[in-house]
Predict the 3D structure of the following.
Amino acid sequence: MHKLDRYDLKILRILSEDGRITKSALAEAINLSVTPAWERVRKLEASGLVRGYRALVDWGALFRTQQVLVEISLARHTAQDMRRFEQRLAEAPEVAFCYATGGGVDYIAMIRARDIDHYQRFIDALLLEDLGIERYYTYIVTKTVKTGENLPPAEAYE
């Protein structure tokens, strides 16, 4: 991968905020002409830094759902146990995201369920699958204060 310069970082920041920006508007925003600006975009796409473009859909406005944060600790920390657990959560449509963490718990996941009963049935099914879950803590989301949907790091603003 080539070394990123200030133009590349500006392009990445702008695209992360508005993936539908026109070629001319992008070029103007970074003070380059259209062709070199768009060539930079193509290089960033080819390098894998720009992995795609998508719409941020407000699913909550369409469907009533309950968001639940779950801290999960596994009984054993073998590579096989962790891989099996991670694969199962990666395949579950209820799991919006799951992070492996260091510290007091092994994983933090966001579950989106129709309601609390649906969430509890999902957790009960995971426990029955013998995925090595030692304990879990459930936190009901009551309000979204901020999401970082596609928030660039502070360095991208310099």
Residues 16 and 148 are 11 Å apart (CA to CA).
